[in-house]
User: Fold these one by one.
Assistant:
Number 1:
Amino acid sequence: MMPMPLIFAATCDLAGKVRGKAFPSDQLEKRLIRGVGWTPTNVQITCFDTIAESPFGALGDLLLIPDAAAEARVSFDEGVQQHFILGDITDLDGAPWDFCTRSLLKSALQRLERVAGVRLIAAFEHEFQLKGAASVPNQAYGREGFEVQRQLCEKLMAALAEVGLSPDSIMKEYGPAQYEVVIGPEVGVRAADAAVIVRELTRSAARSLGEEATFTPIRDVASVGNGVHVHMSFEDADGQPMTYDPAGPCGMSELTSAFAAGVLKYLDRIIALTAPSVISYERLTPHRWSAAYNNLGFRDREASLRVCPVTAKDPASIARQFNIEYRAADAAACPHLALAAIVHAGVQGVEEGLSAPEPTEEDLSLLSPAVLAERGFVRLPETLSAALDILCGDKTVARWFPKAFLPVYRAHKQAEIDYLSEDNIAAKCAAYEQTY
Ligand code: GLU
Ligand code: MG
């Protein structure tokens, strides 16, 4: 008997988990139109497989419709193929469902086009760690640290190329058994699709070698975290770069400056969507090169939003390469949802006509709350609960999402908080390392 090739139709949900259903591959044509059946209450399955309070109960039916543009098909070993296609969740009449993360991102990107006349180009940079892997000590950025995982790195980069992404670089990061994989930019929703694909193929590549990868925000609070850094730039309808202006602040165009200002203004209100786990807030502390304040950095890795350096020399290539990097995200977040929140915050800045603040170069953790406030900085929320309070209490942010979205998201995250409430920090980290 020959095994039947199956395709997994998938969504990356509020928990940042990739869930779905598989169907025989010869049904693809039909499934691209009719999808597979999906259940509303699935949206309340937390990352620990508990089910949060759901407004849907046992009722309702949805469709998860795979999108041929978000297909990942790769063979790691002879005969074993990984094949999944990300899709949109709709109601039975085909209208986007309020909790479909991919549709929420599409609507944010449409707002960006409507308000600013540009498309977003983005690239997600991911850090991860290998659980239980023999790790060579003292190998931050090391050649030997890379050597012991060369096979995994080569397999992963080949897989990324095979599914049509652009592998950029891969390295041994600073932390124990920590690696970082970088891919090239993609336009619009494909950038978030690509981020999901990177995570899943990293896990698959590691598993095929008998290893286990984790993207958990932080494994050990005494060590560094695993960040997700989102690089963003803009192009107009003709594909002309719109991010750079040599005369603008730190090289930012007027659009970039307003977008950056919006992201920084609303950062404390969106962080529960981009750093959405209980332990995300252990990573978002000063001196970890993550993000603790709503500050702009000119090449400074202690900033939540960083203006990145460009290596190009000629003006046309500089304009194309120039990008800003959002550093307050992690892989507990669904990339689509995180990006939707960032884009809405940025567009809000454009609508409000804001300009980017001065970049910081000092240690903001040394400043008193009064001085911080005077200079327009806030310490970002220090717990998930605090982040959720700020998110759900904000009238502007509420307008960016369907009416039912934030209360359901809050209930979802509350169940995750409750699940861990008796655990100490080490146990919390251990729980997350098993789920992400
Ligand atoms: N590991 C750091 C983080 O949690 C980032 C280090 C870097 O700049 O690459 O975001
Ligand atoms: Mg890094």
Number 2:
Amino acid sequence: MGFDLVLFGATGDLAWRKLMPALFQAFRHGSLPEGGRILCVGRDDLGDERYRALIHSRFENVELSKRPSAEEFARFASLLHYLRMDLSRPADYQRLADALAERDAATVVMYLATAPSLFTTVCEQIAAVGLNGPRTRVVLEKPLGHDLASNQAINAALRSVLREEQVFRIDHYLGKPSVQNLLALRFGNALFEPLWRRETIANIQITIAEELGVESRGAFYDQTGALRDMVQNHALQLLCAIGMEPPINAGSQAIRDEKLKVLQSLKPWTAETLGQHVVRGQYRAGTAQGQPAPGYLQEKGVDPGSRTETFVALRTEICNWRWAGVPFYIRTGKRLAGRDARIVVNFRPVPHPIFRCALSDANRLVINLQPKDGLELHLLAQDAAQRAEPALAPAHLNLDFDQRFGAQRVGAYERLLLDVIAGRLNLFVRSDEQEQAWRWVEPILQHWRSESRGPHGYAAGSWGPAAASALIARDGFCWSEEV
Ligand code: BG6
């Protein structure tokens, strides 16, 4: 009967900010399957009513159109039940097993919105009370480890009690409609495929820029840094989507097999490329949204002598027949000039220019992921305003997916939660993919540890350190905002 969703960490930040609002949206739109129950697990001594009241108060921070009316909340709240557990006490898992046995739901989803240090313990304990049977699915939030060895250890612990198909590793970027749309664009249209290769493409740039700093997460972030926080997962997943071969079908195995091949084809690092093709930065004081903003070292929870990077830019290649020699640039950072995630595909210029054209750039496809969701195709056209001599001028085709599909599309966490309940693995990361991504970033981490110089400083509110522009300029290119 229905599903039971066990939410470990139900009083934590992720549950308040993302999971409860997403579950409510799914409930409001009637997409949560019938007969569901949400068992909210926390350490605090709260009963159902107090927990529901807390959730209700948190909805006041949600944007108005996504807030429940009193009547809607009452119906939603009837799904929520609170279970107090100390996750380090084996006896408490027996109480969980008893609570689940009351209903014997067809699907049991265990969502671990907890500190990663608890992942292994929770999985072992649910297995110890027999809750790892085929109806169970376990959802894990990143970070899954802080390097290859720790990631492999977590995956080995998971494998000892669960089958791979029962494990749903979240990379919330895969839940974003704009990111799912990458595969739709590439493999739902015949138009791009003939152009999607080294003969026509000069370089590809993946940017995930954030305007915010580390906010209240200074202590966590200082142990993590941008490479682990953004590149190892979100940026590499975007690289896979843009670089992968067409899968044989839209099933999770076929898609994940192709993404794995991209990760396996990334150019191995050498001492020379580690020195020249990777730039790390750290923000200094500057501005954010027109206001003065402190530097990273002044943020709460951050070690004042920290060398943790808040910015990474790097150049890599996918070493296969399609992409050999085409540079892929990845860039991500906090406290940059704006919130902007986009992929820019720069095409090669015409082989023999017959028109006068002072423009250094040629055709460009800009895939805006957020905050805008759309596609721009940059072309050159006859400059009809020129009187002296015929010339070319840039002109854009602009497709706005928010306008086309409405801004009320299914949010990332709502999509991912619904997929877990339905057992769809497409948008979750398989262990071999994740390990391969760690394997590839590991030499960068080692190189940084051995380097005497720390990250380059950059002013808050800028596009990152000058060294990032120098990195791309060495190939004769520039970042898309510098065009
Ligand atoms: C998270 C990172 O995975 O992604 C955060 O831990 C980052 O540091 C966030 O801010 C960005 O997500 P989004 O959806 O706001 O682009």
